[in-house]
Amino acid sequence: MKLSSKALLALAISSITATAYAEPASQDFVPTTLAGTSAQGEAKGFIEDFSLGGTTRNWYSHESKYRGGTFAYQKHGQTLTDRNRTNWVQGTILNASSGFTQGTVGVKTEVAVYNALVLDRSKRDIKGGSNRTLADSNGDAVDQWSKLGLANVQFRVSNTTLTAGRQNFSSGIVDTIGNRALPSSFQGVSFNSEEFSNLSFQGGVFDRVSPRSEQSLSKFRTEYGNGAETDKVSTLGVNYQPLKSLKTSFFAANVKDFWNQYYFGATHELGDAQQLGLTTGFNYYKTVDEGKKEMGEIDNDTFSLSLGLTHQAHSLTFGYQQVNGNEYFDYLHETNGIYLANSLTSDFNGPNEKSFQIAYAINMAEYGVPGLKFNAYSARGWGIDGTHYTGNNGRAKFAYDGIQSQDGEKHQEYGVGASYALQSGPLKATTVRATYVEHRGSEFQSDGSIKEFRLVTTIPFNIL
To answer: In a designed cystine with 150, which of 112, 168, 434, 436 is the match (CB 3.0 to 4.6 A)?
Structure first.
């Protein structure tokens, strides 16, 4: 149960999907009862429910740094720089999934092959690839590559499923991220239990991550750290819906020798979107150092609050976010484990940072063009202060190097976007999304000043 999108603008877009027949959000209490049906009891069989399909995504990005910023790349042993970077990749997923066998204990297998075809192979354009285009040690693009993105076996009893192997997982701390040509996935063991009507439990232990733009598995690192690795991430949580209009989620995670992290999220809906609807979202993270403290000493409290007003086709959303801690609010690299409202191109998660965002979205279905949406947003962050950071724990290599220079830093970001989803025909559900984002940071703000245009086309397909 994902309570908040990675970006507030996504919340704004999703909040305007109400039809002309929308009803006021019910505030009724939801009693906790046993689930009325058993998913395993309705199993069709290993072969009978077999499916083969997937998606193919054309992912294009052009970035330009400004105010003195540059990208670097190697050519003939020399380091060259310029302001631009372009990545263009076709990512295809072919997924084969069996059904569950019948009986008390159902068994299912899932295998997905991920393939990337690089369409822009210029060393100068890709600038080493980063996490967008896979490049070799010389900075040359790997023209085409494949890997097993998913490979797991699942066991199910009633409404509880145990999954072992390479898999997707979604929670407020450990979450598959899919904002490139291919998504990430995790290797380990997890479970999902939905034995009650409004109460579910999730958990998992993972030792490796399959990155978005890499062929091999990797140990877990953090988004803002400087290289420390861990090979064990454990998480456990609960999703609870006490009211028809209120959903909550609580998760805890132990990242071995890094930190213990706790997450609470809630969303509440009020009113009628055809008249005036209000969606409130709250997300809170507590992070404290653990074990060998490879990321140094950490004591961080970070939260966000968003308020979304919806009237028919229009949505206006406000988001406030605050970091209480002398280090970044950090999360696991190659995950979407940051459900904060103001996580955009910049995460707005500097030490002691405060930020505010306003977003507008319009759903053109209300005007006779279903599938077409537009959005715009503007966000500002201020008060970034890392001068009190002392948490390197004698491990300068792995601590948040340079954070002490951030004294009163600030930044701003704005973006516009348009998306269209085909409503019928052989390419039904194909989506095309174009976005333009501009970010400007002060001298020591970590994200710098950059402009980016993206054009992403995703086509689903079914073979069997």
So the answer is: 112
